[in-house]
Specification:
Order of helices and strands: HHHEEHHH
Structural class: mainly alpha
Strand content: 5-15%
CATH architecture: Orthogonal Bundle
Oligomer: single chain
GO molecular function, one term: DNA-binding transcription factor activity
Protein name: Transcriptional regulator, BadM/Rrf2 family
Largest sheet: 2 strands, antiparallel
Organism: Alkalicoccus daliensis
Shape: elongated
Number of strands: 2
CATH superfamily: Winged helix-like DNA-binding domain superfamily/Winged helix DNA-binding domain
Number of domains: 1
Length: 137
């Protein structure tokens, strides 16, 4: 099981936005931080905006910022914004009561519960603490 690179970039972008003290951060800064093209990152930012996780402010001093309370945003929120909310496993043999599908769906539910319980703000605080002690570049 593997999430797309876009999810990876979205998670890093969200953590970066959570750590900002300025009101907004421009797409250029966010793209440079992750060595991405601004065009590619803009597509990711659009999905995060549509999901209501960030908001965009247009103009010369515009950019992006977190739009919800920071302690409400989970890993699963970001994953769903980028990947959608589809099942990872779909039984190729369609029959009622598939035992294999039952196991896979339960495992997926357990993973979703874990990701929903992990908040981005906790990682952001940990990253900030490491940065302050010089253990994170």
């Amino acid at each position: 099981m593997k999430y797309s690179n876009a999810t990876n970039y979205a998670l890093h972008t969200m953590i970066h936005l959570m750590l900002q003290r300025e009101s907004t951060v421009g797409v250029q800064e966010l793209a440079e931080m992750q060595h991405l093209s601004p065009t590619y990152l803009s597509k990711i930012l659009t999905k995060l905006t549509k999901a209501g996780l960030i908001e965009s402010t247009p103009g010369a001093k515009g950019g992006y910022k977190i739009s919800r309370t920071k302690d409400e945003i989970s890993f699963l929120d970001v994953i769903h914004a980028i990947e959608g909310d589809t099942n990872l496993f779909d039984c190729s043999i369609h029959h009622e009561g598939c035992l294999i599908e039952n196991v896979m769906r339960q495992a997926e539910e357990n993973m979703k519960e874990e990701l929903a319980s992990k908040l981005l703000i906790d990682i952001a605080k940990e990253a900030e603490a490491k940065r302050e002690t010089g253990k994170l570049s």
